[in-house]
């Protein structure tokens, strides 16, 4: 059950990053109560479902920042952030650079 839960849950999260992914929704998809799903998820991944989702969104944003010409707003929307300001704050907290600083630094490093 745990392997099935992790594989299907991760697949579901990654396929639906632009959606509002709530604990209730993820638990329903897994066929578990929200509290039991949360407990199992934390045991399996050493982080909460929300922390995991945020990590996935930040990773996707990093990829889009360095591989597309999309605007910061488009990338924030494509990665499921509710607003550009929330995206900027979450990204900076996770990466210690703003999205624009990250893009400039990474592209500059690639050119060297």
Describe the protein.
With 112 residues, the protein is mainly α. It has helices at 2-15, 23-30, 34-45, 49-67, 72-78, 84-95, 99-111. It is elongated and about 45 Å long. The chain starts with a helix and ends with a helix. The model has no long low-confidence stretch (mean pLDDT 92).
List keywords for this structure.
7 helices, 76% helix, 112 residues, mainly alpha
Main pleated sheet: none
Rounded average pLDDT: 92
> Beta-strand percentage?
under 5%
Radius of gyration: 16 Å
Strand element count: 0
Spatial shape: elongated
User: What class would the helix/strand composition place it in?
Assistant: mainly alpha
Helix content: over 70%
* Poorly predicted spans: none
> For this entry, what is the oligomeric state of its chains?
single chain
Briefly summarize what is shown.
By secondary structure, this protein is mainly α. It has helices at residues 2-15, 23-30, 34-45, 49-67, 72-78, 84-95, 99-111.
